[in-house]
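Holo prediction. Input below; ligand is zinc ion.
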Amino acid sequence: MTIDFPCVNCDGPIPWVRKKVYCTPFCREQAKHIRWMRSTIERGVWEDPEIAEARLIRIAHLNSGGYMPLGRRISIESRYAIYEKYNDLCASCGVNALNGEIDHISGSSNSLDNLQLLCSKCHREKTLANIHPIPEDSLRRKEIKILHDEIRARINSPKPIRDCDNHLSWSEKELEITKARRVEYHQHLLSFIQPLMIEKMNVKTIAKKLNDAKVSTYSGRGSWSRERVRELIADNGFTIEYSPRTHQSEYTPFQRDPL
Ligand SMILES: [Zn+2]
Ligand SMILES: [Zn+2]
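Structure of the complex:
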């Protein structure tokens, strides 16, 4: 009962358990940086020193496989523990770092002894100091060249090459694509629910059948609720009329006025 949707950033398949428009956090991050770079060109600030520095950091994160691979995400509990351990002060220069960053001292382990609190300035300096040229002979170098060529083409194209490159319209377009994919997935489930609808099963019973058969919801998370089943039925073009007397429901196709 699955259906494959391509990643909006790379056209690769999206793992079913994570029904998003991107296949990986890396693709989400790459597209986000491309939109940001395109916006800096449009705003005429590409050459500004702070923008150039921010660009270098973003590119370095992509070079190393993305800033926030899932394993790197720090739990709220660890965040609190680190703020407490450092009394809200920067571990490097001692200023108040309430608005600073939790830094991985080295590598990407999330254990408390590998985390420290840094103010934004020290964090940025450390990040910049850690950017090293990629060794000439490394295997990664070839992959990175391909990545950079792609990013260059996508930021320099006068018209956005992908929908997710368009910093002006993407947030709206992402909602649109998410909805279109949900409708497509729900229509794909019609063969499962149609016999149940013909039997006039109510929404609650259909939800139970879907859960018993372990049919995934569109988000891939949680079980089928009555609300989700109503959406599933609406996406297939039917209205629902429930009769409290019989506990049955009638399903009628929407009437579309051709005029
Ligand atoms: Zn992708
Ligand atoms: Zn500092």
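Residues 170-188 form the longest helix (19 residues). That is the main takeaway for now.
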